[in-house]
Amino acid sequence: MTDDCIFCQIVAGDIPSRTVYEDETVFAFLDVNPLAPGHTLVIPKEHHERLNDTPADVATDVYAALHELVPSVEAAVDAPASTVAFNNGEVAGQEVPHVHGHIVPRFEGDGGGPIHSLFGSQPDLADDELDRIAADIEAER
For position 20, which CATH number holds? Predict the structure, then answer.
């Protein structure tokens, strides 16, 4: 736990939350600044700033909780769909430096779009550049 982390303070019970799920490693609660009714945050109880810093077993537990919660969140607010996302790092829009997945219920005509709508334009990448990037990713594993 990190004393200056708002999510760690929520897990510790120092800050109240509308908790919707808790087990040994995962905690989920309603976002206080929701993008839609039912907007839920799913976090590891241990402090990890980014997905890159999160141990594999903890990441597996977070994903399992997301998997379990998505249909419950959608049903609770009668949403036909949801967007599930992580902002991984400050440049990606992560505002709280504690790993957290968003479950955002989606509704017809809500004004949101697919993840591709977050970006103004797509890069025009040649096949050889795509091959190089794929090889570099594989080499980094």
Answer: 3.30.428.10
Give a yes or no: residue 1 inside a domain: no
- Chunked in runs of 10, what are the mean pLDDT values of the chain (141 residues)? 92 97 98 97 98 97 98 98 97 97 97 85 93 96 89
Beta-carbon contacts of residue 88 (< 8 Å; ≥ 6 apart): 50, 51, 52, 94
- Tell me which residue range forms the domain holding 39: 6-140
Strands 40-44 and 101-106: antiparallel
- What are the catalytic residues? 100
Distance separating the N- and C-terminal Cα atoms of the chain: 28
Q: Are 110 and 34 in contact (CB under 8 A)?
A: no
Which among 34, 30, 101, 6 has a CA at the least distance from the CA of 61? Answer: 101
The tally of domains found in the chain comes to 1
